Amino acid sequence: xxxxxxxxxxxxxxxxxxxxxxxxxxxxxxxxxxxxxxxxxxxxxxxxxxxxxxxxxxxxxxxxxxxxxxxxxxxxxxxxxxxxxxxxxxxxxxxxxxxxxxxxxxxxxxxxxxxxxxxxxxxxxxxxxxxxxxx
Length: 135
Hints:
Blueprint: H1 2-54, H2 60-95, H3 101-134
């Protein structure tokens, strides 16, 4: 019965792991899209400040400084978002009570060891029966 419970637990863990991989892939794609948006935003900032220079509203030096400040501010905000997201994911995964790779491997090893022991016991029983019938 213990073997069946462990096998069931391993199967459940594999299913959870697959579901989590899908969620993590979606998050990864979202983050990569965000990085693309960062590049686009930087370009847009540079174009906007250059437009202000062309209109004579600010100098080239002011445009460079403004663009640099806006980009740094955006990068900081992006870093903050990533940290918040990572923390939220950690908490969410903890709440789901998902096993780590190490825990999964330990359970898998236990199941394999129990299977070996079961096979050995079944073999010993079969040999004992054969010996009893042979006498």
